[in-house]
């Protein structure tokens, strides 16, 4: 087993067993390992800012650590905790490549699409499990649909999402994503998820 695969296994163990995986992730992120590919893709999150209005916690890494800890609280509700927790860690991996300042605002359009591709590349650096890699990548690809569907935005694509992934897993990941920020309102976010699932089911009918 290579050193790289040992690191992957160690990260995965903490994702699946720790109450707060962020504690381990913060520690390992300060080592030279995070300067090498593919972990550098995570290290880049530290250099990527976000809208202070939507993300008062700061950069994408700070947000991701909050999301991972939220995900750890509900991973027993997932049908595939392994895929779910990796998706929580990698869900915004596309932001460094897509973040730009437009009209004075920090945006990251299409980071979900870019993130799915980077997720495949990241996991392929450690695994030869095509089915698993695809499952994680599709969760990353569709994690923004809660916002898009609830706000009737043109980027919503319920039919493709239903064909490609498990909408309940998307909802669970999306809840953690929305809770993974400072001052998040739990009851409001729970309602957002209920509304999303209701709209999806209506689309199925």
From TrEMBL:
Q: Which residues form the HD/PDEase domain?
A: 56-191
Keywords attached to this Swiss-Prot or TrEMBL record, sorted alphabetically, are:
Nucleotide-binding
**Name this protein carries in UniProt:** Putative domain HDIG
Q: Which domain of life is it from?
A: Bacteria
Q: One Pfam family from the UniProt entry? A: HD
A GO molecular-function term, please?
nucleotide binding
* Keyword Membrane on entry: no
Q: Which InterPro entries match?
A: HD/PDEase_dom, HD_domain, HDIG_dom, tRNA_CCA-adding_enzyme
């Amino acid at each position: 087993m290579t050193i790289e695969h040992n690191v992957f296994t160690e990260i995965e163990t903490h994702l699946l067993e720790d109450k707060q995986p962020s504690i381990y992730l913060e520690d390992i992120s300060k080592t030279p390992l995070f300067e090498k590919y593919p972990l550098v893709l995570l290290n880049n999150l530290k250099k990527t800012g976000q809208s202070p209005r939507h993300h008062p916690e700061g950069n994408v890494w700070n947000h991701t650590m909050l999301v991972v800890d939220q995900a750890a609280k509900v991973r027993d509700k997932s049908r595939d905790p392994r895929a779910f927790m990796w998706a929580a860690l990698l869900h915004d991996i596309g932001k460094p490549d897509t973040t730009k300042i437009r009209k004075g605002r920090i945006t990251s359009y299409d980071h979900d699409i870019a993130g799915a591709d980077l997720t495949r590349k990241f996991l392929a650096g450690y695994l030869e499990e095509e089915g698993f890699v695809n499952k994680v990548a599709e969760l990353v690809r569709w994690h923004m649909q809660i916002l898009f569907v609830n706000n009737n935005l043109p980027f919503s694509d319920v039919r493709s999402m239903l064909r490609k992934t498990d909408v309940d897993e998307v909802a669970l990941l999306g809840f953690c994503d929305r809770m993974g920020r400072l001052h998040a309102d739990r009851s409001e976010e729970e309602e957002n998820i209920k509304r999303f699932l209701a709209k999806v089911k209506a689309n199925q009918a």
